[in-house]
Specification:
The protein is 49% helix and 9% strand. The protein is an alpha+beta fold. The protein is built from 17 helices and 7 strands. The chain has 2 domains: 225 residues, Alpha-Beta Complex (H-NOX domain); 104 residues, Arc Repressor Mutant, subunit A. The strands form 2 sheets. The protein has a 5-stranded mixed beta sheet with strand order 2-3-6-4-5. It has a two-stranded antiparallel sheet with strand order 1-7. The radius of gyration is 23 Å and the shape is globular.
Length: 348
């Protein structure tokens, strides 16, 4: 993998929860999810992969396309309203173990990045009777700021209502941006006063909601399950979205990998541009191809009883001898040694 840190908006470090909901929303209106994803470095099928991550650049590009084809400017509200606890992944599961709504919201904010947020969120007391969830955007993008703010506040409200009842409503909603033409949709959804051109983006709620008990809480399982989730959500190093996009293309054809020119065409980039951008990231097409082959080979060695010659063919080699030599170069051990170590817990 490249050594240089990716630029912030190209760091593929967020689960694609928002993209999933946007694609389902526009698909319900008859638009093609595949067409919306074209040239962004992933396909709808990639969204089923639990380890798949996207960047802000990819997400914002897809949201802009969706805005154009869906036609309704309130797309952020519609996207957020589709979210459920399950949509937040493991952080959502952890929320269900919490004793109160307030603690569940704090748990979600603790793992907001893993829950797919492109905003920075915090929960703070306002006074003795109220608490607030404050939201700021991670990237300066005035055009899309309303979308991401709407999505985070609406999804939070939707999840709160699923946990404590549909009667949940904030005390007031404060938003930094000007009043949009569809402002009535805010009042209809939140059922509370809305202030636009406010100093901050924040949703203020009565403290009674913070202490509202959750019916899903299990005091015997809370610590155990949250400890497991904490372990699984260890911080990941950011990945560059171009690197991830190339590797997605290669993973789909690991037994007969396309050349660099074909990969560039898939990503709407010339071969020359692709080669230059990879060099800027201190990597190359060959390094990425080798990494994909190694990952696939290691998975087959650990999880199957396939003969080495069959694994060699499945990873693009013509014979087992060349495969053994390459695998030794990648990992420092022979394939059979890796298979033994993996099955005895000696290989991470």
């Amino acid at each position: 993998m490249p050594n240089k840190s990716p630029l912030p908006d190209t760091a593929a470090d967020v689960p694609p929860h928002v993209i999933r909901q946007v694609l389902q929303l526009v698909a319900a209106s008859g638009h093609s999810p595949e067409r919306l994803c074209k040239g962004l470095g992933f396909t709808p099928d990639n969204l089923c992969d639990a380890s798949f991550r996207v960047s802000y650049r990819q997400t914002s590009a897809l949201v802009r396309r969706a805005m154009q084809c869906w036609g309704d400017p309130a797309i952020g509200i519609a996207t957020g309203a589709r979210q459920t606890v399950v949509c937040f992944g493991l952080p959502g599961l952890g929320m269900l173990t919490c004793p109160t709504l307030g603690e569940a919201l704090q748990y979600l904010i603790r793992y907001q990045h893993a829950a797919g947020a492109f905003t920075v969120n915090e929960l703070t007391p306002v006074d003795e009777r109220h608490f607030a969830i404050g939201v700021t955007t991670r990237f300066h993008d005035p055009e899309l700021e309303p979308f991401f703010i709407e999505e985070i506040f609406v999804s939070g409200t939707a999840v709160a209502r699923s946990l404590v009842g549909s009667h949940f409503r904030p005390t007031r909603l404060e938003l930094r941006y000007p009043r949009p033409a569809y402002a009535s949709a805010y009042s209809e959804y939140f059922r509370c006063p809305i202030e636009f051109n406010a100093p901050l983006n924040r949703m203020v709620s009565d403290m009674s909601w913070f202490h509202c008990p959750l019916p899903t809480h299990d005091r015997f399982m809370q610590d155990s399950l949250q400890a497991q989730i904490d372990h699984m959500l260890c911080a990941e190093a950011p990945r560059n979205d171009l690197v991830e996009s190339i590797m997605n293309v290669l993973r789909a054809a690991v037994d007969d990998m396309p050349d660099l020119s074909s990969v560039g065409a898939e990503l709407n980039l010339s071969e020359r541009t692709l080669r230059r951008r990879l060099a800027e990231l201190d990597t190359s097409y060959q390094k990425l191809a080798d990494q994909v082959r190694y990952e696939c080979a290691l998975d087959l060695l650990r999880r199957s009883d396939m003969a080495l010659v069959d694994i060699a063919m499945a990873t693009g080699f013509t014979d087992a001898r060349n495969f053994r030599r390459a695998f030794k170069r990648w990992s420092g051990m022979l394939p059979n040694q890796a298979r033994h170590a993996g099955r005895h817990g000696e290989l991470a």
